[in-house]
Design a protein that fits this description.
alpha/beta, GMP Synthetase, Chain A, domain 3, 5-stranded parallel β-sheet, 4-stranded mixed β-sheet, about 10% strand, binds adenosine-5'-diphosphate, binds magnesium ion
Length: about 450
């Protein structure tokens, strides 16, 4: 096949896939040769090879074999940068029976595994605060793809705290700056799915080879494979093979490695070998920061809508556990306000978000507060509730009363009863005292804030 036919074919593909996709994916391809019914196509890197093979493999095969009936399948050759000097190429092939174009999956050897990325999940869109600054810094570091200094990077934290966001941000950054690296990002669930599929199709060799060929392996929500023995086993081998080759691995989970139940001990200990960082529960300041950044994004869609700053403060105060819920609330507010053409006020927010607000109502109990506060000040629970009025007990008691007032729906008399049957005026006095001290005494302010956070997380 000469270059003229190849460029003709490319023109035809341009029509089919559109200019954008064409210039991203098809234009960089080079035709190499035909050998034994295999058309060899050179791609700049593994990542592209994977992508093109998955998304355009059948289309290419169709067009190629239309012009040369000899062609049975396509092999993509990625020129690995590190190997350029030696003149070697890595071959990843995809074969597909072209009479089968419409049911392309049936004939394909290898699926390209990278999961789709959310385009909003970039470093630019990630708001950094105390609770996530370490995780952010570590993610930034691996995204530079310098020499591997910690392997794996293990990110963990509760639902909706930004693990997936950071993972995607790393991939985006790598794709931008290090096109030569082949990066795979997928959830542990997808890893298992591919593994099972490979077993079923008797393609385990391909599977192993494929997963050992990446420069960067990223597996999200690894807790998913806990208790799934053969998947764990395979993951363990893949993991070791890549670590041995000094390839970067990035893992996320909802808990620390040691805390994931039904995860094999040898995997736990390997996961702990690198850098383990957690995303802490958000603080009020971080939530407010995130909301402000999301408001900017919403403005692009709804330039006409105004939003009161106190609405953001209200949301940051009331929706505390999950950033996804916080974001969802804001999105809904904007959509609703635009529908009814009203500005977003506190009243509108309370109306429109009643369900969300109800479900994220704090469910802290007075007993919990007493326990936490006693622990914090190293006093016994019985002394907190008991009659003694020395400062060592009185101050923690007042802090606990104050927190009970602001974090529960209990009335002052109800709170008083739970503090050894004290009068409601005593509670009122305690609450007032702490309110004042928070302004004048930095230590009290800090204690209260810390306790409030830890009770609400
Ligand atoms: P996780 O994977 O930890 O459950 P995600 O990464 O899916 O959480 O985050 C949930 C949502 O919250 C996403 O839409 C994400 O963009 C957003 N989010 C979380 N943390 C931040 C942050 N620090 N800045 C901006 N958006 C954030
Ligand atoms: Mg996630």
């Amino acid at each position: 096949m000469d270059t003229k036919i190849w460029s003709e074919l490319q023109d035809e593909l341009r029509e089919t896939v559109g200019e954008n996709h064409f210039s991203n994916w098809i234009a960089p391809l080079q035709f190499s040769k035909i050998e034994d019914g295999v058309a060899f196509i050179v791609v700049p890197n593994n990542f592209m090879g994977n992508y093109v093979s998955q998304n355009y493999g059948d289309l290419l095969l169709y067009h190629l074999s239309k012009r040369n009936t000899e062609i049975q399948r396509i092999a993509f050759q990625a020129i690995a940068k590190s190997q350029l000097g030696k003149g070697t190429v890595e071959t990843r092939s995809k074969s597909s029976n072209f009479s089968n174009v419409t049911t392309a999956q049936n004939g394909s050897v290898l699926e390209v595994p990278s999961a789709p990325l959310d385009e909003r999940f970039t470093f630019e869109n990630f708001v950094v605060g105390k609770p996530n600054e370490l995780a952010h810094a570590a993610a930034k570091r691996v995204a530079e793809a310098g020499p591997v200094t910690f392997n794996p990077l293990f990110l963990y934290g509760g639902v909706g705290l930004g693990k997936t966001h950071l993972m995607h941000a790393i991939v985006w950054e790598l794709q931008k700056k290090r096109k030569d690296l082949s990066v795979i990002y997928l959830s542990a669930e997808q890893f298992m799915y591919r593994f099972v599929q490979a077993l079923r199709d008797r393609k385990m060799m391909d599977f192993k080879q494929l997963f050992r060929s990446f420069d960067v392996l990223m597996v999200d929500d690894v807790q998913f494979i806990a208790g799934k023995d053969s998947t764990q086993e395979e993951f363990f081998h893949t993991f070791n093979a890549l670590v041995d080759q000094n390839k970067q691995i990035i893992i996320s989970a909802d808990q620390a490695p040691g805390e994931i139940k039904d995860l094999e001990d040898r995997i736990k200990s390997r996961l702990q070998c690198g850098l383990v960082v957690d995303l802490h529960p958000t603080t009020y300041e971080l939530r407010l920061g995130i909301l402000q950044s999301k408001v900017e994004q919403q403005r692009h869609h709804y330039p006409e809508i105004e939003i009161d700053q106190n609405v953001l403060e209200f949301l940051a105060l009331r929706i505390t556990t999950n950033v996804r819920v916080l974001e969802g609330a804001l999105t809904r507010l904007f959509a609703f306000a635009s529908l009814v053409t009203r500005p977003i006020t506190l009243e509108l927010a309370q109306d429109c978000l009643a369900d969300i607000l109800r479900s994220s109502e704090r469910k802290v109990t007075v007993e919990e507060i007493q326990r936490k506060v006693a622990e914090h000040y190293h006093i016994r629970l019985s002394d907190m509730i008991g009659p003694r009025r020395v400062r060592t007990y009185a101050r923690p008691r007042q802090v606990a009363m104050y927190l009970s007032k602001i974090l529960t729906n209990r009335s002052l008399p109800e709170i008083g009863r739970r503090f050894g049957g004290r009068d409601h005026t005593t509670v009122m006095h305690g609450v007032k005292r702490i309110e004042d001290l928070q302004v004048t005494d930095g230590q009290v302010a800090e204690d209260v804030e810390m306790l409030r956070r830890s009770l609400q997380s």
